Amino acid sequence: xxxxxxxxxxxxxxxxxxxxxxxxxxxxxxxxxxxxxRNGKRVLIVDHAKKPAEKIRISGxxxxxxxxxxxxxxxxxxxNPHFAKSALARFGxxxxxxxMSAHKLTWHxxxxxxxxxxxxxxxxxxxxxDDLEAAGGRILMECEISEITKPDACFTVTTNKGTFRPxxxxxxxGGLSIPKIGASSxxxxxxxxxxxxxxxxxxxxVPFTFSGALHDRFAAISGVAAPVTVxxxxxTRFSEAMLFTHRGLSGxxxxxxxxxxHPGEAITLEYLPAERVRSExxxxxxxxxxxxxTDWIVEYLPGxxxxxxxxxxxxxxxxxxxxxADIDRLAERLSAHTISPTATEGYRTAEVTVGGVNTDxxxxxxxxxxxxxGLYFIGEVVDVTGWLGGYNxxxxxxxxxAAGEAV
Length: 407
Ligand code: FDA
Fold this sequence. Notes:
Blueprint: E1 4-5, H1 8-11, E2 20-23, H2 27-38, E3 43-46, H3 54-58, E4 65-68, E5 76-77, H4 85-90, H5 93-101, E6 107-109, E7 114-117, H6 121-135, E8 138-140, E9 145-149, E10 156-159, E11 162-164, E12 168-171, H7 186-193, E13 198-204, E14 208-209, H8 212-220, E15 225-231, E16 237-244, E17 248-250, H9 252-258, E18 267-270, H10 274-287, H11 293-297, H12 303-313, H13 324-335, E19 337-339, E20 343-344, E21 352-357, E22 375-377, E23 385-386, H14 391-406
Parallel strand pairs: 1-8, 2-3, 2-12, 3-8, 12-22
Antiparallel strand pairs: 4-7, 5-23, 6-7, 9-10, 10-11, 13-21, 14-17, 14-20, 15-16, 15-18, 16-17, 18-19
Helix pairs in contact: 2-6, 2-14, 10-13
Residues 23-29, 47-49, 55, 58-60, 64-65, 145, 172-174, 177-178, 182-184, 186, 351-352, 379-380, 390-393, 396 line the site of dihydroflavine-adenine dinucleotide (FDA).
């Protein structure tokens, strides 16, 4: 017997059929499978892809940023900002670390509480598969679901690999990002079928694209990175690195901001606080009037960005020639540059989907539907979206733990 395969008869020992079917062998589905199987349930995870957990594999540049030590509900976007609290409180970053450590996996903190696996992301997938196997769960890959109904106390799940009649059905099919590796609208469709509403979905943690002059300017300095504070229209602020690209803007600060951005809205870039620009340039005007303005800016920003910003001002490049109004203009340009992205790169490159199954209709303790007994939604398909930095996997583990314990 093996834990993973694409043939049900080889996978499942003859005998009782699965009591719990989980759709999606990603982060949330595998973890819920472990928890439910450890509770003594007969668990079958089904997935239409060829391989399980492809997003774990490609995450964190291949090293999987599996959690964040700063995990708290305020690091998640949801129509109900309190929804995630219960699950996160009952299964936090250290709980996951304990599971990894049992397999001798080690980790390091990169920045801002972000924990990465020293043994690469494949080792995380392997430990999840090992735990699932040890608990008795099974994964059926290349399994296409054609219909789900609930004629009685059990669901009828019709697939190309057989029909299953579980009492509990956990939807862990993820969001819409990266369709190339298996993302689909399946979870939202099932939710709607059972009467749930969906909080409007949009790509999150995704680069911005620009058109016209801004596109050309950003493309000309693509590859340049700079520290910045990005403020979105709702006044959310992120201070991290920003990267210029051939299409527009990327880097952690931009990816974070994108989850709070709606089409048509502007964002504001602050490279330096206005007060510092004013005080340092006013001081330098007296003490070092021959100094070039660009030599001052370049103390803080890369040369190509400095040239781009200063070129736009049309000022003379000597601090002694700056009037108070000129200094104000520079302060404004460096501290509050407001621009409007044309769009984002969309689900093709987005790390997550913002929005999803409305949390008002789910139990925050168990993730069970309030509308259909035995139906659960976990992971990214739910309207809970983490910041960049391991929060989305932590939500997958925590929500999976809640449902896996409850079934
Ligand atoms: P996930 O998407 O992992 O799994 C869903 C599964 O359902 C897939 O296996 C899919 O094939 C299956 N499925 C979909 N439709 C189906 C259908 N119709 N029938 C059957 N099966 C179906 N987060 C983080 O915290 N740290 C990080 O480092 C990264 N890095 C990262 C990099 C990149 C490139 C991306 C795209 C994303 C990240 N993320 C991340 C986000 C993280 O990967 C994501 O939030 C979790 O994988 C979500 O876990 P789920 O199990 O909910 O969905």
